[in-house]
Automatic annotation (TrEMBL):
Species, as recorded: Morus notabilis
UniProt keyword terms in alphabetical order: Hydrolase, Membrane, Protease, Serine protease, Transmembrane, Transmembrane helix
Lineage: Eukaryota, Viridiplantae, Streptophyta, Embryophyta, Tracheophyta
Major localization listed first in the record, in broad terms: membrane
Designated name of the protein: RHOMBOID-like protein
PANTHER family assigned: RHOMBOID-LIKE PROTEIN (PTHR22936:SF69), RHOMBOID-RELATED (PTHR22936)
Amino acid sequence: MASQDLERGGTKSRNNYASGNYSNPYYVETSEHQWTSWLVPMFVVANIAVFIVAMYINNCPKNNSGFEGDCVAKFLGRLSFQPLKENPLFGPSSSTLEKLGALEWRKVVDRNQGWRLITCIWLHAGVIHLLANMLSLVFIGIRLEQQFGFVRVGLIYLISGLGGSILSSLFIQRNISVGASGALFGLLGAMLSELLTNWTIYTNKAAALFTLIVIIAINLAVGILPHVDNFAHIGGFLTGFLLGFVLLIRPQFGYIESRHHPANSHVKSKHKAYQYILLLAAVALLIVGFTLGLVMLFKGENGNKHCSWCHYLSCVPTSKWRCGN
C-alpha cells in the first residue's frame, strides 16, 4: 500500500490552529446571523460510513494472500485491516480502494471514469488517515459553517476537493490517490482569502494573517514527504482561496450600523470596491483554471512534461527516502 497509495493526510498543526477559534478573536461586527452547523457533521458521518463499507468489502480474512503477513485486528472479522507491511495506516488494500473509486489517472482518461475525481474525496487509506482528516474537518469546518452557512461551506469543500483531484491527476499518473485533504486545504485557503477580502472588519490583522500563513505553510511542507499527494493539497488550497473571495465576502465595517441611522443620513455601501475587484478576478481565474485543467486532463496531458521541477512540490528526495516516479 505504501508504495502505491498516495494519501491526502491531515496534520496536527491544522487541528491546533482551528481549535484556537481563529475567527472570533479578530472579528469586529458580531450582529450577523450565526448558523447551526449540521453539514460538516454529516460529512464526517459520511466519511466514516464509507470507510466501514470499504473495510467490509475488503474482507481481509478472505482476500489476503498472506505474502505480506496476517490481517491486523482479526477479532473484527471481515472488517480487519490489511497487514501493516501492505498498509501501515490500518486500512484496506489498494485494489479495494481502486474498486470503490480511488483516483487513478488511466481510468479517468482512458475509460472516461471522471466520477473518480469526486469519489476519491470520500475514501481514506486507513484509520489513521481518516481520523486526522475528520478531526481537521470538525475543527475547521464547523467554525466556518457557523459563520457562513452550510451552502457556502459545502460548495467550497466539494469544489476544492474537485480542484485538488484535477491537479493531482495532471501530475501523479502512476499511483492511486484517496482522501479529503484537498477539500480541507480548500477550507484553509478560503479562510485566508476571507481574511484578506474582509480586511477592514478585523482587528489584530497582522497577527491573524501571520498565524494563518504559518499554519498553511507547515501543512503544505508536510506534503513533500513520500506517499503524500501534495498536488491535491495545492489544488484544493488554490481553489478554496479563490472561492473565498467569491463566497465569503462580508459587508464593510460600519455598514450594519449605518442601516439603522435616520433615513436622510448617509448609508455606507455594502462592500468596498476592492472586494468587487477581487471577486471578479477570482471568478475569472476559477473559470480559466478549471477549463484548462479539465481539457488537459481528458486530453491525456502529463503536467510534468510542462513543468520539469513541479514534481518536487509533492516529494523531495533525501538520504532517508526516495520519491521514485
